[in-house]
Every structure is written in C-alpha cells, then in structure tokens.
Amino acid sequence: QGTIIVNVRAAVLGDEYILLLADDRTEITRTERIRNDFVANVSHELKTPVGAISLLAEALEASPDDEDAVRRFAARMHKEASRLAALVQDIIELSRLQGADVVHQGKAVDINEVVADAVDRSRLAAEAKDIEVRVGGDVGAQVFGDPDLLTNAFRNLIDNAVRYSPGNTTVGIGIRHRDGLVSVSVTDQGIGMGPEDQERVFERFYRADAARSRQTGGTGLGLSIVKHVVENHGGEVTVWSQPGKGSTFTVRLPDLEGGTEDQSAAGRPP
Ligand code: ADP
Prior knowledge:
By secondary structure, the protein is an alpha+beta fold. It has helices at 26-62, 67-98, 102-105, 111-128, 147-163, 195-200, 210-215, 222-232, 256-260; strands at 6-13, 17-24, 107-110, 132-137, 142-145, 170-178, 181-187, 236-242, 246-254.
C-alpha cells in the first residue's frame, strides 16, 4: 500500500533540456498481479480433481474384477468430474462477467420473478436436506439489468445458504423496495462465520472452510460471481453473520427508475 510504480523515460533535448516521461504503472501492475494470482489459483484448483480422476482411473484399470471397488471408484470419479464441471462453469461465468455490459444490453427485470427462478433452481439441493426456502416481502419491484445474471447471483446465495446449513432448517428470502432501492436478503440458520471470514468471502477462491466447501461441491467462486453481477448492476452485496447462528447476505440494487437515469430508454417499460 502507498507504493506507486512508474516507468520513467528520459530524452535529452539540445544542451539545456531533458524531457522526462513518467507513466503511472501502478494500476496496470496491480491488475497484472491479480490476473497472475487468478491463473495460479485456477491451475491449482483444476489440477486437484483432474489428478484424482486420473488416479481413480488407474485404480479401476488395476482391479477390473473387484465389483465393489469398481463401484466405489466410479462413484468417486463421478463426484470429482462434477466438481470439475462446476469449476469450469464458474470460471467461464466469471470471465464472461469481466466484459459484460448490462447497462447497454439490459432490460426491465421483475425482481420477484428472478428470485422465484433462483429458488426453483436451488430446489433439489434444498429438498435433499429438508430445508424450506420461504420468500416474502414486497412485490412488483423492477430493476434494470440482465435477468440470467441476476438469477444466477441469487441462486448462488441460496445454494450457499443451503450448503452451509444443517438439515431441517429454514432459508428466508426478504424483498424490500424503498427510496429507489430494491434489497433482497437471504438469511439462513447455518454455521455462520467470524468477522475475518466475512471480510474475505467475496474474494476469488477464498473459503472459510476449504474442506467443507469442496466436500459439498463448492468452487470458492460463487460469492465473487455474485459481487461482480451486483456491482455490474450498480448495486452492492453485504454480509452479516454470527458463527453458529447463521448468515444474512443482502443485495441492494437501484430500482428501475434509479437504475436507468443515465442509460438508454430501450429497456424501459412503456
Ligand atoms: P464456495 O463455493 O466455497 O461456497 P463461495 O464464494 O460461494 O464459495 O463462498 C466462499 C466461502 O464463504 C465459503 O467457502 C464459505 O466458507 C463461506 N460462506 C458462503 N456462504 C455462506 C453461508 N451462507 N454461511 C456460512 N458460510 C458461508
């Protein structure tokens, strides 16, 4: 922090003047570092399931007649392959988001509809743990943006609420529309997390509990996707949590009026 990186070039002009050109490279260097860290993380994360699949395949080849072993190895290969697929999908989604221009390609989106879609997509995971997902609050609020990206963001929050909660609990989703802002909060009665984790959970590949996250199919990218989507829509996402009690993730977005002030009127309803 506090360091500025400059690229200085000098040219001598005649006898009296020296021309100094200084480029501020601070931001570029920071971006490069973030990109390099990301590539290193991606390689590491991809290598783990790929390595496991190749070991399991070798084990399968070595014991083709042991039916019990074949079944166990195949089941583990299936799990590792699903993890690999989820990881690849999240990486593609994240890189697609870097270039997404929701301001110019967006439209009017009914927030209750995207939340209902997201709940639908998380249904299987919730039912598998007997978790009830309840939606309540205001209806009819609209925001300006990309419905698929927003559905995906809410789905990530609901999937997490289910993933980090014990069975037989409830996930509550509250929608509010006030003073030009639409807020959606997803509250669970799960394991929660301490203040240090709360500060870092939106970073790529950060996990409060890596083993649990991997075990339950997490990629470590869900919340950074949520943050990107929400910020692309001019909003913010915050977390409140208490270990052992549960967590609330709140997404705040400008409503359709607030969100379209300086945008084309193309997506506005008549
Ligand atoms: P992951 O795929 O690991 O869930 P995310 O980016 O979605 O990755 O979340 C990052 C980390 O934040 C998780 O590994 C977990 O430790 C923590 N986390 C996210 N959501 C919750 C939640 N609802 N309750 C408790 N911890 C959570």
